[in-house]
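Ticket 4471: requesting a sanity check on a complex prediction with zinc ion. Repro inputs:
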Amino acid sequence: MIPLTWVKRYQELGFVVHPCCPPTHRCQSPGKIPYDPYERRHMEGWQNHPQFTLEKWAEWLDLEPEINIGFLTGSPSKIVAVDIDNAAGEEMFRGLVSEEDRRTWQFRTGKGSRFLYRVDEGGVRSARLTSGDAAIEALGDGRQSVLPPSIHPSGTQYAWIEPLTPRHCEVHGAPAVLMLPQADITSERPDWEAAAQAPTHEGSRNETLTRLAGHLLAPASVPPDEVFIWLKLYSAAHCKPPLSDPEIKMIVRSIQNRQERADVQAELETRRLMKEHNLKWTDAEMMRRGMCG
Ligand SMILES: [Zn+2]
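Returned structure tokens:
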């Protein structure tokens, strides 16, 4: 049974923790999936769960003493967990991260080990690095990880490796090699509905359409031809006087170029890492179909 004192200590250390299903749970990944002991089923919407109170934890442990414990990796806990499953993965990790950088919190899992690193800012992308048989997975935003003293379905207990425990040492900052280049995400969201109803006069026509093109092209879901048509319609309805077709095309093209440059930069950085370390990056999106924890 998970001692309540451990739950409390994890929370004090900043881990945003949740129950995971019992190791005997009948599911694809027993013991590893966020779990709701009241409902006796996997937790819904666990990616955004709050820090649960200790009172709730006490009730849960009473209801179902066999639950495991896990935490939200990435931004919520400001911790990225690096999962290493076999000897080949360990060797790759040793090649990537210096001995000093490997002196961080570390625990044994069912098959291998997990290193924890502090991350301070922004989002933390999850990623998987593979090379031959070796694989390392960085669990960041949108993921979670089981914590000691949970029980693996094989019967092994997850256990901190002394002296690399929160009691004996500090958590190390994440080494640069683990951090994937972040996509350039703008959080600014102008009110397009209001903007679409207001007339746009000669002085600000270009600026408004440039912003609209950026908005439409940003998720890369609307093809440039369609963006052109939207801008043309917008311009005809709201710009006084409307912009010409070549002017609109130029706006679309310039935003597209700007976004392609950002994509190319991310791609170059990935290739540099691949070449330097003889690795293959696979995105977390691919991994999510696999497993959590
Ligand atoms: Zn389960």
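Notes from triage: Residues 192-274 form one domain. Leaving this open until the requester confirms.
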